[in-house]
Amino acid sequence: MTLGQDLRGAFETLRRHGKAVVVAEPVGWEYEAAAVLWELAHGPAVRFDDVPGYRVPLVGNLLNTRDKLACVLGVDDERLGEVLAAALDSPVPPAVVDDAPCQEVVVTDGIDLTGLLPIPAISERDGGRYLSAGVLLCAPPGGGRQNLAIARLQVQGPDRLGVNFAPTHSWQFLQEWWARGEPMPVAVALGCHPAVAAASQLLVPFDEAHAAGALFGEPLRMVRGRTVDVLVPAEAEIVIEALLHPGDRAPEGPFGEFPGLYAPMRDNPVLRVTAVTHRRDPWLTMIVGGNHPEHLVTGAVAREATLLRAVRAVVPSTRRVVLTEAGSCRFHAVIAIEQRNPGEARLAMLAAFSTQDLIKHVTVVDDDIDPADPRQVEWAVATRMRAHEDLLVVPGMKSNPVDPMSVGRTISKLGIDATRPLGADPERSVLVDVPAGVRDQVRARWSELFPDAGAS
Known about the structure:
Helix content: 25-40%
């Protein structure tokens, strides 16, 4: 199956599968759209067609659940992690095109971002209106690999955006440009296919556009910017082109970040916008900040893929990894393994701790436990863990600055071995249930058995 590379096709795919809705009634950009998306936190993707004062729809909840990404990629939910992990090993270079939908309209004079786009106010104490779903693209001096990342962007003027860079490749490239006394050219792609957004979050040593190509099964089509030498996804809805001049900073924030807390105001670099290009009648995407599921899952699906590969490198029988929503999809991981040798659970813990500095609690379960089901995981801890033997505490490990419990940039990390001891009688740990398949048979007959009760 050939996948489209545009947001519109992905949204229609979600609609056909009952995973997206269109709201025709007026919904305002000032907190109201965010409030609706909070009410539908685990619900469908939403397109707000009537944002008062604008002709541009707002779209959210595109990646608030993992099954939506699986749906638009045309894969089964349970295979999503494997598909993403495979993209790390089979990168597909992009194809550069001359004409692109994202450049049907080009604006270089009189740029007024909030006059053109319904950029939302999201959380109560945010420092202003934010573009929260833009994929920022940049490259080091001299070219070479580009980097794709989602960075929050605060409107600071008609043609200015404050940006917060995570300490990754984009930040490294900026330091290299500024060390030369030169501005760094960047582009921000808005309204991308969800696969591009997911690929931008992969922790890889190569250009994330190559990973997006692997997910599409064909090269990601990209076009060169009109005012900056940066390649951007050709099928994006909107592209903002800009320069970051050396030393140009301004106060940015606060902003509701993924731990569910506000990141404080700090001096951050400023994008000076040189052009806005877009489709005719473009759509604008948004991600609700804080610990809204889309803010969490957008990063989690990619982080889970890199975590699965890292843990599987030392414990080949690793079946699945999940970064839990209650752990902000960053701090807590559950790893399911088919345990074959003593000590593999601890090996999995240590691999997880060393692979991603944000991870600080890891629970390892047997492969008969669904790591995405908190009830099953807690049951495994309750019935298969002996605290004096099965807890691992590693003090003084490097933490991430966003961890609210970090002290001196270090944290203590905790591992829980909730697997059965090797050689234990398996009959003593069988989960009580009816015969396999009977529940499915009953569900299929539910409306017949309870015609007035609706679906189960």
